[in-house]
Each structure stands twice: as structure tokens, then as C-alpha cells.
Amino acid sequence: MRSLPATRKPAVRSTRWFTAGRGRKERGARAVFLDTGIFIAFLDRSDGYHHAALQLFSDPPARWFTSIAVVAEAYGWFLHRLGEEAARTFRLALADLPLLKLLGLDPAHHEAVIRKLEHLRGHKLTYVDASSLVLLREHRIPEVWGTDRDLSLEGARVVPAGR
Questions:
Q1: ∠10-16-19 over CA atoms, to 5°?
Q2: How does pLDDT run along the chain (163 residues), one tens digit per residue?
Q3: What value does the CA radius of gyration of the chain take, rounded to a whole number of Å?
Q4: What span, in angstroms and rounded, lies between the C-alpha atoms of 74 and 4?
Q5: Residue 151 to residues 26, 85, 88, Cα–Cα distance (Å)
Q6: Domains in the chain and their CATH numbers?
């Protein structure tokens, strides 16, 4: 995950912007998984992917997902890099996402993540990325909004193109 220099204090976007796509006809039944990087890019105006994130969120999919692990990772990122108010903004923004499904974690999921980490040794995957790969396969989600190419390891399309 990217980190910011300690001296940089970027402006964090208001949660009201998440509702921009409400009331519009959504594209098909396409499913999208939201990764940590897209939340950072969307809410942090100084992020290099900020404008791409704005475009993505202006035309929301019919079904979008994220996981409790991604929420925990993103919340921690905002809290420790931008402060408590930024973390609160992120938390409130999640509530504004229409029809976002939070995917939970349980002991069976943990075992699947451990198998995934073993299977993909050498890729230096984080636990959260391995968890996301398991969920992408289980829920047949073909597209990820994020900035982490690791989530394309098993065929998912990652937009915007990440590092």
C-alpha cells in the first residue's frame, strides 16, 4: 500500500460526493470489488488516481462489494496518515454507497486465505490482498476498482491501472 510523507496533509473529500450516481441508470448487472486504493484515491484529493476515481464513482455499477478486511485496512490508512477526522469521513462515506455489500470473514475464509498465500508464494501478497482474491473467486467478481495490480494475478480486471 502507498504511504504519504509525514508532512503532507491532503484535503479529504466530503462524503456527499458518493451519492453523485444515485438516481441514474446503473450499467447492467456488472459486479465490482472496491479495494483500499480506490477509497484512498477517491477521498484524498492529492492522490495520483484521484481524478480517475472521481470518474469511476460518478457511474456506479449495479452491484459493488468490499470486505471487512479492506474496510479495516483503509480505515487504518486514513487514521494513521491523515488523522481521525479523515478516518471518520471514510467511515461515513461507506454508509453513503448505495447497495454496497460488505463481505465478511470467518474461520473457513481464513483457511482459504492461508491456502492462497501458500499458492502465490513469491508474490509478496498481503493478507488483505489474498483475502480479496479469495472473495473475487467465490463471488465471481470480474472487476476491481483499485490501484493494486496484485488483484489481477488471477484474471480480474483492475481499474484504474495500478502500480
A1: 125
A2: 444 444 344 455 554 444 444 444 444 578 999 999 999 999 999 999 999 999 999 888 889 999 999 999 999 999 999 999 999 999 999 998 878 999 999 999 999 999 999 999 999 999 999 999 999 999 999 999 999 899 999 999 999 965 5
A3: 15
A4: 14
A5: 24, 29, 26
A6: 27-159 (3.40.50.1010)
